[in-house]
Amino acid sequence: METNRDLEATWEYHEGTKHSFQSLRSSRHFLDFENKPLPFKIYPGLEPIPLPQGLEPSGVPALEALAASAAEPKGERLPDLKLLARLLHYSAGITKRIRYSQGEMLFRAASCTGALYHIDLYLVCGDLPDLEAGVYHFGVHDFALRQLRRGDFRGELVRATAGESAVALAPAILICSSTFWRNSWKYQARAYRHCFWDSGTILANLLAMTAAHRVPARVLCGFVDGWVNRLLGLEPQREVALALIPLGRDSPTGQAPDVEPLALETTPLSRSEVDYPAIRAMHEASSLAEETVVAAWRGAASVAPLASPSGRLFPLRPLNDREAPHDSIEEVISRRGSSRRFARQPISLEQLSTALSSIGGIAADFTQSGGRLLNDAYIIVNAVEGLPCGSYVYHPDEGALELLREGEFRDEAGDLGLEQALPADASANVFFLADLAPILERFGNRGYRVAQLEAAINGGRLYLASYALGLGATGLTFYDDDVTDFFSPHAEGKSAMFLVALGHPARKTPG
Ligand SMILES: Cc1cc2nc3c(=O)[nH]c(=O)nc-3n(C[C@H](O)[C@H](O)[C@H](O)COP(=O)(O)O)c2cc1C
After folding, report:
1. For residue 198, which atom of ligand 1 is closest to its CA?
2. Full domain range(s) for residue 403
3. Taking residues 397-423, what's their average pLDDT?
4. Is the peptide bond before 39 cis (omega within 30 degrees of 0)?
């Protein structure tokens, strides 16, 4: 049997990395700060190619950019270094520096579990107006590119994606990777989920930016893993490619030169690294080995839609264009940060509605017919003016929330979010849940990657929409089965993929 079709692997990984009240209390894991990994990948032997600084904003309102990012932009813009610099900065660059007694903490454009920043971005391009064809790494620490290979290797990605048309025409392709240890240091085997969570938040920003600049962009999860990893010179036991994002659509690709092995020195991340075999097993089990498998993977049928509403419906009332805040996407990304505390104040139904309308389609090779999402949004409303407190499911087609259970659930929300105060204090908690069985049937084990990534991209959009509305937000982790139980019977059989809390930020009280 093709490895990707042996679905036991996903269930084993998913079950084995669930959080529960018990699992957290029985864990002996501790954080060895002496061995904390570096949050950057650094190639000390390669010359930096500085990216242009002082980037003028597009000025496109964030909410408009988010709405536009649900479809592939139609523009024909050829990315140049200045535009690439903008896209890289606002998706994965350093946007905030906070000084502490022990030093300085650098925060980035997109949220990331534990601020461990294990996701890297690579660029594969043909000749651009001011950058020669090559394979590059984006060095976040000094905002520079470094050339790993010289020459036009895009053809290798066309081959790896079985001739995906967006790749075949793209002048530039970005690739996200994760170095597992940089996240598993804290989160152990659960870090494989975070590969998709933390690249999803980056992609939410990137897609909003490409929409603002009208650069065609797609998210591709179907590719021959081994070929992409080899092109980037990754050691697949430690670091793997997760998604490809072709940018632009006016530059047909030729055949790539031979892909010779790369042996480039990188700065050690920490004194020693711990291997988590469950991560590697899940990655291997969801890998695609050759072009024919990729082509078949991409072409398969759609999963079933969300059941029609049967409970009481509350129509959403998004702010209209005149009422909605117009802060630009760049301003919003620059001020984004995860709320560390929420005030127990209500948000308006208009704010919740506008935030929820940022959840939308993704131009991707896993897009379902009719734009149907793989994840459903379930919500605990703690304090929203005009909505009874309770649990809901979001019906995007109806533009409405279906009430599942009315009641005050602040305590339950806190418990589901790993007993933290944030989800209890938030005005609303949005849980993305996916029915994994049909998704795995459709996509094989790779469906797990796709379902996590889709949830995280929409979670990242919720973050941005909340900040555009002058609210705060934070991603949160959760007790998996308790989340399903809480929203059942409606959510029976579904799995929690991602959680975002939103509300009015409050100052964190000292101590
Ligand atoms: C998927 C996800 C889960 C997160 N889970 C938690 C959490 O359980 N508790 C928490 O306090 N922060 C959580 N965070 C917030 C991160 O700690 C935060 O993004 C990181 O420290 C970087 O800071 P920034 O978002 O302010 O830039 C989460 C973030 C993401 C993206």
Report:
1. 31
2. 313-505
3. 98
4. no
